[in-house]
Amino acid sequence: MIEEIRISSLGVIDASTLELGPGLTVITGETGAGKTMIVTALGLLLGGRSDSGAVRLGARSARVEGVVAAADLPGLVAAVEEVGGEVEDQRVVLARNVSAEGRSRAFVGGAGVPVSGLAAVAEPLVAVHGQSDQHRLLQARAQRGALDRFGGAPLADLLARWTGLFDRLREVEGELDDVVAHARERVREADLLRFGLGEVEAVAPEPGEEEQLAAEETRLGFADTLRTAAEQAREALSSEDGAPDALATTSAARTALEAVREHDAEAGALADRLAEVIYLLSDVAADVAGYASRIDVDPARLAGVSERRAALTALTRKYGDTVEEVLAWAEQSAARLLELDGTDERIEQLRAEQVRLREELSATAEQLTAARSEAAERLATEVTAELGLLAMPHARLTIAVHQHETGAPAEGELPTGAPLRVGGRWLRYARSGVDEVEMLLAANTGSEPRPLHKGASGGELSRVMLALEVALAGTSPVPTFVFDEVDAGVGGAAAVEVGRRLAQLARSAQVLVVTHLPQVAAYADRHVVVRKSSDGSVTSSGLTLLDDDAREVELSRMMAGLAGSDTAVAHARELLEVAQPARALA
Protein backbone atom coordinates (compact mmCIF):
# COMPACT_ATOMS: atom_id res chain seq x y z
CA MET A 1 0.00 0.00 0.00
CA ILE A 2 1.16 3.53 -0.78
CA GLU A 3 1.08 5.47 2.49
CA GLU A 4 2.20 8.89 1.31
CA ILE A 5 3.03 10.87 -1.81
CA ARG A 6 5.10 14.05 -1.51
CA ILE A 7 5.13 16.44 -4.44
CA SER A 8 7.22 19.57 -4.87
CA SER A 9 7.51 22.00 -7.79
CA LEU A 10 5.44 19.83 -10.14
CA GLY A 11 3.08 21.82 -12.38
CA VAL A 12 0.85 24.04 -10.30
CA ILE A 13 1.74 22.18 -7.08
CA ASP A 14 4.41 24.00 -5.12
CA ALA A 15 4.74 21.61 -2.19
CA SER A 16 2.07 19.17 -1.01
CA THR A 17 1.80 15.87 0.78
CA LEU A 18 -0.93 13.37 0.02
CA GLU A 19 -1.50 10.93 2.86
CA LEU A 20 -3.17 7.74 1.68
CA GLY A 21 -4.66 4.81 3.49
CA PRO A 22 -6.49 1.61 2.71
CA GLY A 23 -9.82 1.62 0.91
CA LEU A 24 -11.01 4.25 -1.57
CA THR A 25 -9.45 7.70 -1.80
CA VAL A 26 -10.97 10.27 -4.17
CA ILE A 27 -9.37 13.49 -5.38
CA THR A 28 -11.62 16.31 -6.50
CA GLY A 29 -11.22 19.97 -7.33
CA GLU A 30 -12.17 22.64 -9.79
CA THR A 31 -11.11 22.34 -13.41
CA GLY A 32 -7.50 23.40 -13.78
CA ALA A 33 -6.74 23.04 -10.09
CA GLY A 34 -4.17 20.33 -10.76
CA LYS A 35 -5.94 17.05 -10.04
CA THR A 36 -4.17 15.29 -12.88
CA MET A 37 -0.80 16.30 -11.38
CA ILE A 38 -1.40 13.51 -8.84
CA VAL A 39 -1.60 11.00 -11.65
CA THR A 40 1.42 12.62 -13.31
CA ALA A 41 3.37 12.28 -10.06
CA LEU A 42 2.44 8.61 -9.84
CA GLY A 43 3.53 8.13 -13.44
CA LEU A 44 6.96 9.52 -12.56
CA LEU A 45 7.21 7.15 -9.58
CA LEU A 46 6.36 4.25 -11.87
CA GLY A 47 9.28 5.09 -14.14
CA GLY A 48 7.25 6.95 -16.78
CA ARG A 49 8.76 9.41 -19.21
CA SER A 50 9.71 12.72 -17.63
CA ASP A 51 8.87 16.13 -19.09
CA SER A 52 10.84 19.21 -18.15
CA GLY A 53 7.72 21.24 -18.98
CA ALA A 54 6.06 19.77 -15.89
CA VAL A 55 8.63 21.48 -13.61
CA ARG A 56 7.06 24.45 -11.87
CA LEU A 57 8.01 27.81 -13.37
CA GLY A 58 11.04 29.25 -11.57
CA ALA A 59 11.99 25.97 -9.89
CA ARG A 60 15.26 24.16 -10.61
CA SER A 61 13.67 20.73 -10.42
CA ALA A 62 10.53 18.82 -9.50
CA ARG A 63 10.58 15.96 -7.00
CA VAL A 64 8.10 13.22 -6.24
CA GLU A 65 8.47 10.80 -3.33
CA GLY A 66 6.31 7.82 -2.47
CA VAL A 67 6.36 5.88 0.80
CA VAL A 68 5.27 2.27 0.31
CA ALA A 69 4.44 -0.14 3.14
CA ALA A 70 6.29 -3.36 2.34
CA ALA A 71 5.18 -5.59 5.24
CA ASP A 72 2.89 -7.71 3.05
CA LEU A 73 4.92 -7.43 -0.14
CA PRO A 74 7.91 -9.82 0.04
CA GLY A 75 8.43 -9.44 -3.71
CA LEU A 76 8.91 -5.69 -3.26
CA VAL A 77 11.51 -6.21 -0.53
CA ALA A 78 13.47 -8.58 -2.76
CA ALA A 79 13.27 -6.17 -5.72
CA VAL A 80 14.50 -3.24 -3.58
CA GLU A 81 17.43 -5.20 -2.21
CA GLU A 82 18.34 -6.41 -5.71
CA VAL A 83 18.88 -2.82 -6.91
CA GLY A 84 20.87 -1.93 -3.78
CA GLY A 85 18.16 -0.12 -1.82
CA GLU A 86 17.18 -0.54 1.81
CA VAL A 87 13.88 -1.27 3.52
CA GLU A 88 13.56 0.61 6.83
CA ASP A 89 10.76 -0.07 9.32
CA GLN A 90 8.98 -2.16 6.69
CA ARG A 91 8.78 0.88 4.40
CA VAL A 92 10.39 1.79 1.09
CA VAL A 93 10.87 5.30 -0.24
CA LEU A 94 10.68 5.70 -4.01
CA ALA A 95 11.74 9.04 -5.48
CA ARG A 96 12.12 10.79 -8.82
CA ASN A 97 13.78 14.11 -9.62
CA VAL A 98 13.20 15.95 -12.90
CA SER A 99 15.34 19.02 -13.59
CA ALA A 100 14.22 22.06 -15.56
CA GLU A 101 16.83 21.08 -18.17
CA GLY A 102 15.16 17.68 -18.63
CA ARG A 103 17.56 15.46 -16.66
CA SER A 104 15.94 12.78 -14.55
CA ARG A 105 17.18 10.83 -11.54
CA ALA A 106 15.54 7.92 -9.74
CA PHE A 107 15.98 6.49 -6.24
CA VAL A 108 14.81 3.27 -4.60
CA GLY A 109 15.30 2.82 -0.87
CA GLY A 110 17.93 5.57 -0.83
CA ALA A 111 19.96 4.08 -3.69
CA GLY A 112 20.33 5.88 -6.99
CA VAL A 113 19.08 3.64 -9.80
CA PRO A 114 18.34 3.95 -13.52
CA VAL A 115 14.77 4.94 -14.34
CA SER A 116 14.28 1.42 -15.70
CA GLY A 117 15.27 0.08 -12.28
CA LEU A 118 12.65 2.27 -10.60
CA ALA A 119 10.07 1.02 -13.11
CA ALA A 120 10.96 -2.60 -12.43
CA VAL A 121 10.40 -2.09 -8.69
CA ALA A 122 7.32 0.17 -8.81
CA GLU A 123 5.28 -0.93 -11.84
CA PRO A 124 3.99 -4.16 -10.23
CA LEU A 125 2.60 -2.08 -7.35
CA VAL A 126 0.17 0.15 -9.26
CA ALA A 127 -2.24 -0.25 -12.17
CA VAL A 128 -3.14 3.13 -13.70
CA HIS A 129 -6.29 3.51 -15.78
CA GLY A 130 -6.82 6.79 -17.52
CA GLN A 131 -7.88 8.02 -20.92
CA SER A 132 -4.30 8.89 -21.86
CA ASP A 133 -2.57 5.92 -20.22
CA GLN A 134 -1.38 2.67 -21.67
CA HIS A 135 -3.68 0.24 -19.89
CA ARG A 136 -2.18 -2.84 -18.37
CA LEU A 137 -5.02 -5.09 -19.48
CA LEU A 138 -4.74 -3.99 -23.11
CA GLN A 139 -1.61 -6.11 -23.49
CA ALA A 140 -2.19 -9.61 -24.81
CA ARG A 141 0.16 -11.13 -22.23
CA ALA A 142 -1.64 -9.32 -19.39
CA GLN A 143 -5.03 -10.51 -20.67
CA ARG A 144 -3.86 -14.12 -20.70
CA GLY A 145 -2.31 -13.72 -17.26
CA ALA A 146 -5.52 -12.20 -15.86
CA LEU A 147 -7.60 -15.05 -17.29
CA ASP A 148 -5.20 -17.64 -15.84
CA ARG A 149 -5.44 -16.07 -12.37
CA PHE A 150 -9.23 -15.92 -12.66
CA GLY A 151 -9.27 -19.65 -13.46
CA GLY A 152 -7.98 -20.43 -9.99
CA ALA A 153 -6.03 -23.41 -8.68
CA PRO A 154 -7.09 -26.02 -11.30
CA LEU A 155 -5.91 -23.84 -14.15
CA ALA A 156 -2.76 -22.88 -12.24
CA ASP A 157 -1.91 -26.56 -11.73
CA LEU A 158 -2.31 -27.28 -15.45
CA LEU A 159 -0.17 -24.28 -16.34
CA ALA A 160 2.55 -25.38 -13.90
CA ARG A 161 2.54 -28.85 -15.44
CA TRP A 162 2.75 -27.35 -18.92
CA THR A 163 5.68 -25.05 -18.09
CA GLY A 164 7.58 -27.91 -16.46
CA LEU A 165 7.15 -30.12 -19.54
CA PHE A 166 7.96 -27.20 -21.85
CA ASP A 167 11.21 -26.37 -20.04
CA ARG A 168 12.31 -30.00 -20.05
CA LEU A 169 11.53 -30.32 -23.76
CA ARG A 170 13.67 -27.27 -24.48
CA GLU A 171 16.56 -28.84 -22.54
CA VAL A 172 16.20 -32.17 -24.35
CA GLU A 173 15.94 -30.60 -27.80
CA GLY A 174 18.86 -28.29 -27.07
CA GLU A 175 21.07 -31.22 -26.11
CA LEU A 176 19.82 -33.25 -29.06
CA ASP A 177 20.66 -30.43 -31.47
CA ASP A 178 24.12 -30.12 -29.97
CA VAL A 179 24.84 -33.86 -30.12
CA VAL A 180 23.59 -34.25 -33.70
CA ALA A 181 25.20 -31.05 -35.00
CA HIS A 182 28.57 -31.99 -33.58
CA ALA A 183 28.47 -35.71 -34.34
CA ARG A 184 31.34 -35.49 -36.83
CA GLU A 185 33.43 -33.43 -34.46
CA ARG A 186 32.69 -35.94 -31.70
CA VAL A 187 33.97 -38.80 -33.91
CA ARG A 188 37.17 -36.89 -34.62
CA GLU A 189 37.56 -36.09 -30.94
CA ALA A 190 37.09 -39.77 -30.05
CA ASP A 191 39.77 -40.83 -32.54
CA LEU A 192 42.23 -38.31 -31.13
CA LEU A 193 41.51 -39.48 -27.60
CA ARG A 194 42.00 -43.13 -28.56
CA PHE A 195 45.35 -42.30 -30.16
CA GLY A 196 46.49 -40.34 -27.12
CA LEU A 197 45.34 -43.00 -24.67
CA GLY A 198 47.16 -45.60 -26.79
CA GLU A 199 50.39 -43.63 -26.52
CA VAL A 200 50.02 -43.29 -22.76
CA GLU A 201 49.18 -46.96 -22.38
CA ALA A 202 52.20 -48.02 -24.48
CA VAL A 203 54.58 -46.06 -22.25
CA ALA A 204 52.69 -46.85 -19.00
CA PRO A 205 54.29 -44.08 -16.90
CA GLU A 206 54.40 -44.34 -13.13
CA PRO A 207 54.04 -41.45 -10.66
CA GLY A 208 57.46 -40.09 -9.63
CA GLU A 209 59.24 -42.12 -12.32
CA GLU A 210 60.60 -39.11 -14.15
CA GLU A 211 62.65 -37.88 -11.14
CA GLN A 212 64.01 -41.35 -10.42
CA LEU A 213 65.13 -41.83 -14.04
CA ALA A 214 66.77 -38.42 -14.15
CA ALA A 215 68.84 -39.28 -11.08
CA GLU A 216 69.80 -42.69 -12.47
CA GLU A 217 70.80 -41.25 -15.85
CA THR A 218 73.08 -38.72 -14.18
CA ARG A 219 74.68 -41.45 -12.06
CA LEU A 220 75.28 -43.74 -15.04
CA GLY A 221 76.60 -40.92 -17.17
CA PHE A 222 79.30 -40.05 -14.59
CA ALA A 223 80.13 -43.61 -13.43
CA ASP A 224 83.89 -43.33 -14.13
CA THR A 225 84.19 -40.04 -12.32
CA LEU A 226 82.21 -41.31 -9.36
CA ARG A 227 84.28 -44.51 -9.09
CA THR A 228 87.57 -42.58 -9.18
CA ALA A 229 86.39 -40.25 -6.46
CA ALA A 230 85.26 -43.18 -4.31
CA GLU A 231 88.61 -44.98 -4.69
CA GLN A 232 90.54 -41.85 -3.77
CA ALA A 233 88.35 -41.38 -0.71
CA ARG A 234 88.87 -45.01 0.34
CA GLU A 235 92.67 -44.68 -0.01
CA ALA A 236 92.62 -41.52 2.08
CA LEU A 237 90.66 -43.23 4.80
CA SER A 238 92.35 -46.64 4.76
CA SER A 239 95.23 -47.32 2.39
CA GLU A 240 95.95 -50.89 1.28
CA ASP A 241 99.58 -50.24 0.23
CA GLY A 242 100.75 -48.86 3.57
CA ALA A 243 100.57 -45.18 2.62
CA PRO A 244 99.62 -42.75 5.37
CA ASP A 245 95.84 -42.64 5.82
CA ALA A 246 93.27 -41.20 8.19
CA LEU A 247 92.87 -44.34 10.22
CA ALA A 248 96.63 -44.73 10.78
CA THR A 249 97.24 -41.15 11.85
CA THR A 250 94.16 -41.15 14.12
CA SER A 251 95.31 -44.43 15.72
CA ALA A 252 98.78 -42.93 16.33
CA ALA A 253 97.22 -39.91 18.03
CA ARG A 254 95.14 -42.13 20.28
CA THR A 255 98.18 -44.26 21.21
CA ALA A 256 100.13 -41.15 22.21
CA LEU A 257 97.37 -39.94 24.52
CA GLU A 258 96.73 -43.38 25.97
CA ALA A 259 100.38 -43.49 27.07
CA VAL A 260 99.90 -40.48 29.35
CA ARG A 261 96.35 -41.25 30.56
CA GLU A 262 97.55 -42.09 34.09
CA HIS A 263 99.16 -38.70 34.44
CA ASP A 264 96.12 -36.58 33.42
CA ALA A 265 92.42 -37.50 33.25
CA GLU A 266 91.79 -34.95 30.46
CA ALA A 267 94.35 -36.71 28.23
CA GLY A 268 92.45 -39.95 28.85
CA ALA A 269 89.16 -38.33 27.84
CA LEU A 270 90.68 -37.13 24.60
CA ALA A 271 92.00 -40.60 23.91
CA ASP A 272 88.46 -41.97 24.37
CA ARG A 273 87.05 -39.49 21.92
CA LEU A 274 89.69 -40.45 19.36
CA ALA A 275 88.65 -44.08 19.84
CA GLU A 276 85.13 -43.09 18.79
CA VAL A 277 86.53 -41.30 15.73
CA ILE A 278 88.46 -44.42 14.78
CA TYR A 279 85.28 -46.49 14.90
CA LEU A 280 83.47 -43.93 12.72
CA LEU A 281 86.32 -43.76 10.23
CA SER A 282 86.34 -47.54 9.99
CA ASP A 283 82.59 -47.57 9.22
CA VAL A 284 82.88 -44.77 6.65
CA ALA A 285 85.87 -46.45 5.03
CA ALA A 286 83.88 -49.68 4.69
CA ASP A 287 80.87 -47.79 3.24
CA VAL A 288 83.02 -45.91 0.73
CA ALA A 289 84.65 -49.19 -0.33
CA GLY A 290 81.19 -50.74 -0.79
CA TYR A 291 79.99 -47.72 -2.78
CA ALA A 292 83.03 -47.90 -5.05
CA SER A 293 82.42 -51.59 -5.70
CA ARG A 294 78.80 -50.96 -6.66
CA ILE A 295 79.54 -48.33 -9.25
CA ASP A 296 79.39 -50.06 -12.59
CA VAL A 297 79.71 -48.65 -16.08
CA ASP A 298 76.66 -50.08 -17.99
CA PRO A 299 76.22 -48.44 -21.39
CA ALA A 300 73.19 -50.60 -22.15
CA ARG A 301 71.38 -49.52 -18.99
CA LEU A 302 72.29 -45.88 -19.67
CA ALA A 303 70.81 -46.15 -23.15
CA GLY A 304 67.66 -47.75 -21.75
CA VAL A 305 67.20 -45.03 -19.16
CA SER A 306 67.73 -42.29 -21.75
CA GLU A 307 65.23 -43.93 -24.07
CA ARG A 308 62.65 -44.20 -21.29
CA ARG A 309 63.10 -40.54 -20.37
CA ALA A 310 62.64 -39.57 -24.03
CA ALA A 311 59.35 -41.51 -24.12
CA LEU A 312 58.13 -39.74 -20.99
CA THR A 313 59.19 -36.37 -22.42
CA ALA A 314 57.13 -37.06 -25.55
CA LEU A 315 54.07 -37.63 -23.36
CA THR A 316 54.59 -34.53 -21.23
CA ARG A 317 55.06 -32.46 -24.37
CA LYS A 318 51.55 -33.46 -25.54
CA TYR A 319 49.42 -34.25 -22.52
CA GLY A 320 50.78 -32.45 -19.47
CA ASP A 321 53.79 -30.77 -17.92
CA THR A 322 54.47 -33.70 -15.59
CA VAL A 323 53.86 -37.45 -15.53
CA GLU A 324 51.18 -36.85 -12.90
CA GLU A 325 49.37 -34.44 -15.24
CA VAL A 326 49.64 -36.96 -18.08
CA LEU A 327 48.03 -39.61 -15.90
CA ALA A 328 45.23 -37.17 -14.91
CA TRP A 329 44.64 -36.36 -18.59
CA ALA A 330 44.41 -40.06 -19.37
CA GLU A 331 41.81 -40.60 -16.64
CA GLN A 332 39.66 -37.69 -17.83
CA SER A 333 40.03 -38.67 -21.47
CA ALA A 334 38.96 -42.25 -20.77
CA ALA A 335 35.74 -40.96 -19.20
CA ARG A 336 35.16 -38.56 -22.10
CA LEU A 337 35.77 -41.37 -24.60
CA LEU A 338 33.09 -43.48 -22.95
CA GLU A 339 30.71 -40.54 -23.32
CA LEU A 340 31.62 -40.01 -26.98
CA ASP A 341 31.35 -43.68 -27.81
CA GLY A 342 27.79 -43.56 -26.44
CA THR A 343 26.70 -40.77 -28.83
CA ASP A 344 24.36 -42.92 -30.92
CA GLU A 345 22.77 -44.40 -27.84
CA ARG A 346 22.37 -40.92 -26.33
CA ILE A 347 20.71 -39.64 -29.50
CA GLU A 348 18.21 -42.48 -29.35
CA GLN A 349 17.47 -41.75 -25.68
CA LEU A 350 16.97 -38.03 -26.34
CA ARG A 351 14.68 -38.63 -29.31
CA ALA A 352 12.60 -41.08 -27.31
CA GLU A 353 12.25 -38.52 -24.51
CA GLN A 354 11.41 -35.82 -27.04
CA VAL A 355 8.53 -37.90 -28.40
CA ARG A 356 7.27 -38.65 -24.89
CA LEU A 357 7.40 -35.00 -23.80
CA ARG A 358 5.59 -33.85 -26.93
CA GLU A 359 2.83 -36.38 -26.31
CA GLU A 360 2.45 -35.20 -22.71
CA LEU A 361 2.48 -31.56 -23.84
CA SER A 362 -0.21 -32.30 -26.41
CA ALA A 363 -2.50 -33.85 -23.80
CA THR A 364 -1.82 -31.02 -21.32
CA ALA A 365 -2.47 -28.39 -24.03
CA GLU A 366 -5.96 -29.75 -24.64
CA GLN A 367 -6.74 -29.67 -20.92
CA LEU A 368 -5.29 -26.16 -20.56
CA THR A 369 -7.31 -24.84 -23.51
CA ALA A 370 -10.49 -26.36 -22.09
CA ALA A 371 -9.85 -24.80 -18.67
CA ARG A 372 -9.10 -21.40 -20.18
CA SER A 373 -12.20 -21.51 -22.37
CA GLU A 374 -14.38 -22.31 -19.37
CA ALA A 375 -12.80 -19.51 -17.32
CA ALA A 376 -13.15 -17.11 -20.27
CA GLU A 377 -16.91 -17.70 -20.41
CA ARG A 378 -17.29 -17.06 -16.68
CA LEU A 379 -15.14 -13.92 -16.71
CA ALA A 380 -16.87 -12.51 -19.79
CA THR A 381 -20.28 -13.06 -18.16
CA GLU A 382 -19.23 -11.29 -14.97
CA VAL A 383 -17.68 -8.32 -16.79
CA THR A 384 -20.68 -7.96 -19.10
CA ALA A 385 -22.96 -7.83 -16.06
CA GLU A 386 -20.76 -5.17 -14.49
CA LEU A 387 -20.84 -3.09 -17.67
CA GLY A 388 -24.64 -3.12 -17.59
CA LEU A 389 -24.45 -1.36 -14.22
CA LEU A 390 -21.88 1.16 -15.47
CA ALA A 391 -24.10 2.91 -18.06
CA MET A 392 -23.16 0.43 -20.79
CA PRO A 393 -26.32 -1.72 -20.83
CA HIS A 394 -25.83 -2.95 -24.38
CA ALA A 395 -22.13 -3.67 -24.12
CA ARG A 396 -20.94 -7.25 -24.32
CA LEU A 397 -17.45 -8.52 -23.51
CA THR A 398 -16.22 -11.74 -25.04
CA ILE A 399 -12.92 -13.45 -24.44
CA ALA A 400 -11.56 -15.41 -27.36
CA VAL A 401 -9.27 -18.32 -26.67
CA HIS A 402 -7.76 -19.39 -29.96
CA GLN A 403 -4.65 -21.04 -31.33
CA HIS A 404 -2.29 -20.25 -34.17
CA GLU A 405 -2.43 -23.14 -36.59
CA THR A 406 0.57 -23.80 -38.82
CA GLY A 407 1.59 -26.26 -41.47
CA ALA A 408 2.71 -29.77 -40.66
CA PRO A 409 6.48 -30.28 -40.52
CA ALA A 410 8.25 -32.56 -42.96
CA GLU A 411 8.02 -36.23 -42.21
CA GLY A 412 10.73 -37.70 -40.05
CA GLU A 413 12.35 -36.58 -36.87
CA LEU A 414 10.93 -33.33 -35.47
CA PRO A 415 13.44 -30.47 -35.28
CA THR A 416 13.65 -28.05 -32.37
CA GLY A 417 10.82 -25.53 -32.46
CA ALA A 418 8.60 -27.67 -34.66
CA PRO A 419 4.87 -27.09 -34.05
CA LEU A 420 2.97 -29.26 -31.62
CA ARG A 421 0.32 -31.69 -32.80
CA VAL A 422 -2.79 -31.17 -30.67
CA GLY A 423 -6.10 -32.81 -31.50
CA GLY A 424 -5.10 -33.44 -35.10
CA ARG A 425 -3.86 -29.87 -35.68
CA TRP A 426 -0.33 -28.54 -35.80
CA LEU A 427 -0.15 -25.52 -33.48
CA ARG A 428 2.43 -22.95 -32.57
CA TYR A 429 3.26 -23.13 -28.86
CA ALA A 430 5.21 -21.23 -26.22
CA ARG A 431 5.95 -21.38 -22.52
CA SER A 432 2.43 -20.05 -21.85
CA GLY A 433 0.78 -22.82 -23.86
CA VAL A 434 -0.79 -23.01 -27.31
CA ASP A 435 -3.49 -20.43 -26.56
CA GLU A 436 -3.76 -16.79 -27.46
CA VAL A 437 -6.24 -14.83 -25.36
CA GLU A 438 -7.95 -11.71 -26.62
CA MET A 439 -10.62 -9.64 -24.91
CA LEU A 440 -13.19 -8.21 -27.34
CA LEU A 441 -15.88 -5.61 -26.76
CA ALA A 442 -19.13 -4.99 -28.60
CA ALA A 443 -20.11 -1.60 -27.16
CA ASN A 444 -23.57 -1.48 -28.74
CA THR A 445 -26.29 -3.85 -29.83
CA GLY A 446 -25.58 -5.34 -33.22
CA SER A 447 -21.94 -4.24 -33.34
CA GLU A 448 -19.21 -6.78 -33.90
CA PRO A 449 -16.84 -7.53 -31.00
CA ARG A 450 -13.53 -5.72 -31.48
CA PRO A 451 -10.27 -5.57 -29.49
CA LEU A 452 -10.62 -3.39 -26.41
CA HIS A 453 -8.48 -0.53 -27.66
CA LYS A 454 -10.50 -0.41 -30.90
CA GLY A 455 -13.99 -1.15 -29.66
CA ALA A 456 -14.42 1.55 -27.00
CA SER A 457 -14.03 5.28 -26.52
CA GLY A 458 -11.76 6.63 -23.81
CA GLY A 459 -14.55 6.89 -21.23
CA GLU A 460 -15.99 3.51 -22.16
CA LEU A 461 -12.56 1.92 -21.96
CA SER A 462 -12.05 3.24 -18.43
CA ARG A 463 -15.33 1.66 -17.38
CA VAL A 464 -14.39 -1.62 -19.07
CA MET A 465 -11.14 -1.55 -17.11
CA LEU A 466 -13.09 -0.90 -13.90
CA ALA A 467 -15.45 -3.79 -14.63
CA LEU A 468 -12.50 -6.08 -15.31
CA GLU A 469 -10.66 -5.03 -12.19
CA VAL A 470 -13.78 -5.61 -10.08
CA ALA A 471 -14.21 -9.09 -11.57
CA LEU A 472 -10.53 -9.86 -11.10
CA ALA A 473 -10.18 -8.21 -7.70
CA GLY A 474 -9.83 -11.47 -5.81
CA THR A 475 -7.03 -12.71 -8.06
CA SER A 476 -5.15 -9.55 -9.04
CA PRO A 477 -1.59 -9.23 -7.71
CA VAL A 478 -1.68 -5.41 -7.99
CA PRO A 479 -2.12 -3.79 -4.55
CA THR A 480 -3.02 -0.26 -5.77
CA PHE A 481 -5.34 0.92 -8.55
CA VAL A 482 -5.53 4.46 -9.91
CA PHE A 483 -8.47 5.61 -12.04
CA ASP A 484 -8.26 8.98 -13.76
CA GLU A 485 -11.65 10.32 -14.90
CA VAL A 486 -13.12 6.79 -14.90
CA ASP A 487 -16.56 8.40 -14.83
CA ALA A 488 -16.17 10.40 -18.05
CA GLY A 489 -19.45 10.48 -19.93
CA VAL A 490 -21.37 9.00 -16.99
CA GLY A 491 -24.06 10.60 -14.88
CA GLY A 492 -27.13 9.92 -12.78
CA ALA A 493 -27.75 6.40 -11.54
CA ALA A 494 -24.83 5.02 -13.59
CA ALA A 495 -22.46 7.34 -11.69
CA VAL A 496 -23.75 5.92 -8.42
CA GLU A 497 -22.98 2.41 -9.68
CA VAL A 498 -19.46 3.51 -10.68
CA GLY A 499 -18.92 4.71 -7.12
CA ARG A 500 -20.36 1.50 -5.73
CA ARG A 501 -18.07 -0.64 -7.90
CA LEU A 502 -15.02 1.39 -6.92
CA ALA A 503 -15.93 0.89 -3.26
CA GLN A 504 -16.29 -2.83 -3.91
CA LEU A 505 -12.84 -2.98 -5.52
CA ALA A 506 -11.41 -1.05 -2.57
CA ARG A 507 -12.38 -3.90 -0.23
CA SER A 508 -9.47 -5.95 -1.60
CA ALA A 509 -7.07 -3.25 -2.83
CA GLN A 510 -6.06 0.36 -2.36
CA VAL A 511 -7.94 2.52 -4.87
CA LEU A 512 -7.19 6.13 -5.83
CA VAL A 513 -9.70 7.96 -8.07
CA VAL A 514 -9.60 11.37 -9.71
CA THR A 515 -13.24 12.32 -10.32
CA HIS A 516 -15.59 15.20 -11.01
CA LEU A 517 -18.77 13.35 -10.00
CA PRO A 518 -20.20 13.73 -6.48
CA GLN A 519 -21.93 10.35 -6.83
CA VAL A 520 -18.49 8.72 -7.05
CA ALA A 521 -16.83 10.91 -4.42
CA ALA A 522 -19.53 10.05 -1.89
CA TYR A 523 -18.28 6.44 -1.74
CA ALA A 524 -14.76 7.45 -0.69
CA ASP A 525 -13.18 6.50 2.60
CA ARG A 526 -10.86 9.49 2.25
CA HIS A 527 -11.68 12.63 0.30
CA VAL A 528 -8.87 14.95 -0.80
CA VAL A 529 -9.55 18.25 -2.55
CA VAL A 530 -7.10 20.16 -4.74
CA ARG A 531 -7.46 23.91 -4.21
CA LYS A 532 -5.92 26.57 -6.38
CA SER A 533 -4.69 29.91 -5.10
CA SER A 534 -2.96 32.87 -6.68
CA ASP A 535 -0.98 35.83 -5.41
CA GLY A 536 -1.63 37.76 -8.58
CA SER A 537 1.47 36.55 -10.39
CA VAL A 538 1.90 32.87 -9.52
CA THR A 539 -0.79 30.20 -9.29
CA SER A 540 -0.33 27.24 -6.98
CA SER A 541 -2.35 24.31 -5.74
CA GLY A 542 -2.44 22.39 -2.50
CA LEU A 543 -4.00 19.19 -1.20
CA THR A 544 -6.41 19.13 1.72
CA LEU A 545 -7.90 16.07 3.46
CA LEU A 546 -11.56 16.81 4.19
CA ASP A 547 -13.49 16.01 7.34
CA ASP A 548 -17.20 15.11 7.25
CA ASP A 549 -18.46 18.70 7.25
CA ALA A 550 -15.99 19.79 4.61
CA ARG A 551 -16.98 16.81 2.47
CA GLU A 552 -20.58 17.96 2.46
CA VAL A 553 -19.47 21.39 1.29
CA GLU A 554 -17.25 19.98 -1.45
CA LEU A 555 -19.92 17.57 -2.69
CA SER A 556 -22.46 20.41 -2.78
CA ARG A 557 -20.03 22.47 -4.87
CA MET A 558 -19.58 19.54 -7.25
CA MET A 559 -23.36 19.13 -7.61
CA ALA A 560 -24.53 22.74 -7.82
CA GLY A 561 -21.39 24.65 -8.62
CA LEU A 562 -22.34 27.01 -5.82
CA ALA A 563 -20.72 27.11 -2.42
CA GLY A 564 -23.07 27.40 0.54
CA SER A 565 -26.28 26.26 -1.19
CA ASP A 566 -28.50 24.77 1.52
CA THR A 567 -30.29 22.57 -0.98
CA ALA A 568 -27.02 21.26 -2.39
CA VAL A 569 -25.63 20.61 1.10
CA ALA A 570 -28.75 18.65 2.03
CA HIS A 571 -28.45 16.65 -1.17
CA ALA A 572 -24.76 16.00 -0.44
CA ARG A 573 -25.61 14.82 3.07
CA GLU A 574 -28.22 12.45 1.66
CA LEU A 575 -25.75 11.12 -0.91
CA LEU A 576 -23.19 10.39 1.81
CA GLU A 577 -25.79 8.52 3.85
CA VAL A 578 -26.75 6.38 0.84
CA ALA A 579 -23.11 5.55 0.13
CA GLN A 580 -22.14 4.83 3.73
CA PRO A 581 -23.07 1.09 3.80
CA ALA A 582 -21.09 0.38 0.62
CA ARG A 583 -17.84 2.04 1.66
CA ALA A 584 -14.86 -0.27 1.85
CA LEU A 585 -13.98 0.74 5.42
CA ALA A 586 -17.53 1.20 6.67
UniProtKB/TrEMBL annotation:
One of its GO terms (molecular function) is ATP binding. Keywords: ATP-binding, Coiled coil, DNA damage, DNA repair, Nucleotide-binding. Residues 340-378 form a coiled coil. Gene3D superfamilies: P-loop containing nucleotide triphosphate hydrolases. Pfam families: SMC_N. Residues 2-536 form the RecF/RecN/SMC N-terminal domain. GO terms for biological process: DNA recombination; DNA repair; SOS response. Signal peptide: none annotated. One of its GO terms (cellular component) is bacterial nucleoid. NCBIfam families: recN. Belongs to the RecN family. May be involved in recombinational repair of damaged DNA. This is DNA repair protein RecN. It comes from Nocardioides marinisabuli. The lineage of its organism: Bacteria, Bacillati, Actinomycetota, Actinomycetes, Propionibacteriales.
